[in-house]
Amino acid sequence: MKINFINKSFFAIMIFSVISCEDKMDEYIPYDQEIFENFYKSPADFEQAKNAMYSAFRGNGYFSGGGSGDGLISTPDIMSDNLVLNTEGRQSGRVNAEFTFNSNNVPNGMYGTAYRIISRANSIIDRINVLPDGDFKNNILGQALAVRAICHFDVARAYAKIPTQSANANQSLGIAYVKTFNPQQLPTRLATVEETYNEIINDLELASQIIAVENTVDATQAGTNVFLDRVSVKALLSRVYLYNGNYALAAQRAQEAIDLGATLGTRAQFPGIWNDSNNSDILFKIAITVQDDVQIGVDYFQFLSGAFFSEYVCDFDFYNLYLNNDVRKSAYFTVAQSNGSEYIHITKYYRDLTNQRFLDGKYIRTSEVYLNLAEAKARLGNDDTGALAALNALRAQRYTGFVSGNETGSALLNQILLQRRLELAFEGDRFFTLKRLGLPLQRSGKGHLSDGTGNISVPQTLSADDHRWQWPIDQTTLNINPNIQQNPNYSAN
């Protein structure tokens, strides 16, 4: 398990690792003798530190799950009603599927990785005034603030309550919000979730005002979206405000992202999103190359001797929610046999290049922005027309021959939530959607084989007030920092 606070020697070695992008910028410069205070002298230094900040998203708990059900795109789906554990597989991540985790066997390594990224962001923020005032300084600062915010947000939604989860959620225990670079500090958790979200929103709103409208790797790679920019920050604000229950601002920021250029991928483009043949719909992603040796999707299946062998398969009832004229059905699934049995394999992250699934990690897409816009407008209760228009924009690009159902009221909201589940499946959304809506987990009772028979998930239900909706903080972190309070009802064994 990775820890959340790093010492200076680790920082000196790792902070300057350079991000691998599609221009093959994949060098490692060993600044093991570099002193932090003497590094930030030039714009090039800040560029290098910025790249190292982004590169850390390839770490454990984010886009590297290590094949253990431990990644950002897998853990929240494993812990939901989208998947069924294949007991004939390696059974990796079984503690997640069965909710048997504790502080010595946590569901996900994101906690430590998130604070490592936060530390890198803070090192930039703390030294930003070395740069002269101007667009370059503002853009670097904006990116660092946005990264700091989204990492805290990811920790908050996993390890604390979500504001809309329950009546008392906003006044429940928050998370440690770290705003300065000091590897020796031992921060405490904020008193409330409300304070935590205020900090996240403050960072993102400031970032949205100063960051560049578009950030690209270079002039030849426009649209690769491997750096945050104003469009993606507005999109992220729509997500955070939705979680925070501020539906007016969720809708406003979503619309601003769309107005700035967030564009839905078409039905024809959609399959290419998942094999990296196009960047349509993607607002922010983490670039991953062969050299990184991070294989997104390995938590779901392996491909051996010409056949898929799945760790987790799609739930039978959920699979059947995808209509045959839905482009997502073929883009996300392959129904095939292995070892004499047929399964619904999750092949959303499969690219048939000698079985090398070195795909970029998609962090936020325009599709989610439209869903955020539709849900926020629906929940405001005064703009079903606008909510339906946002929903229809998405549905028209997913279904052949789409005809609007012209839903209103509760039927409209239910359809929005259905499309959210269908669209964002296996991208780490489902567990958090159930959590923010204060809903219990109710699995279907269907088994792991393609016809719904076989071994079923355990447990089948998890009540909305169960303490396991808040993940345990790992024991290593607790040992290093006695100021960090464990979530209720967890022990080491």
From TrEMBL:
Chief location category: membrane
Keywords: Cell outer membrane, Membrane, Signal
Pfam families: SusD-like_3 (PF14322), SusD_RagB (PF07980)
Cellular localisation: Cell outer membrane
Span of domain SusD-like N-terminal: 94-242
InterPro entries: SusD-like_N, SusD_RagB_dom, TPR-like_helical_dom_sf
Residue ranges constituting the RagB/SusD domain according to the UniProt record: 324-490
Family, as annotated: Belongs to the SusD family.
Name assigned to this protein: RagB/SusD family nutrient uptake outer membrane protein
